[in-house]
Amino acid sequence: MNRTGELLTTTLLALLMVLLASGCGANPAQGADGQEPAPVSPRETEAARVSYLGPAGTYTEEAAQFFFPAAGSLLPEETVEEAVANVAEGDADYAVIPQENTLGGAVTNYVDALIAEEDLYVVGEVILPINQTLMGVPGASLDDVRVVCSHAQGLTQSARWRQEHLPEADTQEMPSTAAAASYVAETGDKTIAAVAAPGAARLYGLSVLAENVQITDANKTRFYVLSAARAEEETRDRAVFVADCEANRIDDIIAAIHDAGLELVTIHDRPEGSRLGAYHYIVEVEEEDGITEERLREITSIPEVRCLGSFHAVEKGN
Question: Would you say residue 115 has pLDDT above 90?
Fold first, then answer.
């Protein structure tokens, strides 16, 4: 091989190594198996303290584990308000809270907890498939069940199934699905069953009485990841704003967001609390090529609008 050929070969090999190192041609949202998106946290998280709605075995814990596979510690709390307060007070680096479910809609009191904290930001989003399971103490059967307990969302999501299979059973709301499973295990009562995540049955030594008791197999919940520091990337997949205004003003704000090139993902309204007809509108948006700081400033220049954060969204496969 002549000198020119050697130089060309060396150059091509060097270029190939650069491309491989940069991941050229790979989808950055996919995991190593190419099937499932890998959670991409906004900053180093190996020593992170992550607060979430406990106890162990909740879907929120599953979302936290998915987004933070190398977290330093997971801190279960009895309420979302306590989990959020941990971050606000510096006792945790992040909090993971449910935001919206396919069947149950917005988890309004959790959204309220986010709005109330002006110094916290949404820095990530996890979309998790929800497969609700009915579980009871060992030896129990469907014929034994007289009471079904779960989180309000679990009861809503299983309502149609329960109407068909347990029409006479009463319901009991619990702070979380895992708390319901724990309660059933503690009582040892065959007449009480819980709707919870499949893993809760193993965790609390319960027997599965029925699988997939939600209305649809397309059931999913979106979770927000909160931090006291904003995400630092130049562009993010999505952003969420709160617009504090009267109902007759929100159309203009949505039009301005659309004119800025952003697509609406979801919108929820919560009462402002001081006068009739005034609301907090939670508006989540996305942009195919990423949302820049310039775009965020354009939207927050609207007087009634405050940015709650911008972030990457990841989804866990079934």
Answer: no
Angle between helices 108-116 and 80-88 (to 10 degrees): 20
Please check the confidence at residue 50 and state whether its pLDDT lies above 70: yes
User: Would you state the structure tokens that stand for residue 32, as one six-digit string?
Assistant: 């190593």
Cβ partners under 8 Å of residue 34, min gap 6: 27
For residues 127 and 219, is the Cβ–Cβ distance under 8 A?
no
- Output the CA torsion sign for 268, 307, 240, 299: positive
Assess whether 86 and 234 both reside in one domain. yes
Residues 168 and 234 both lie in one domain: no
CA atoms of 203 and 195, how far apart (whole Å): 14
Identify the domain boundary among 195, 218, 241: 218
Residue 246 is assigned to a structural domain of this protein: yes
Decide if pLDDT at 28 tops 60: no
- 195 is in which domain, residue-wise? 133-218
Burial state string for 49-62 with b = 16 or more CB within 10 A and e = fewer than 16: bbbbbbbebbbbbb
CATH of the domain at 174: 3.40.190.10
How does strand 170-173 pair with strand 147-150? parallel
Do both 262 and 227 map to the same domain?
A: yes
Cβ 148 vs Cβ 172: under 8 Å: yes
Domain contains 82: yes
Mean pLDDT of 183-193: 97
Q: Which H or E element spans position 152? A: helix 152-157
> What is the mean pLDDT of the segment spanning 177-206?
95
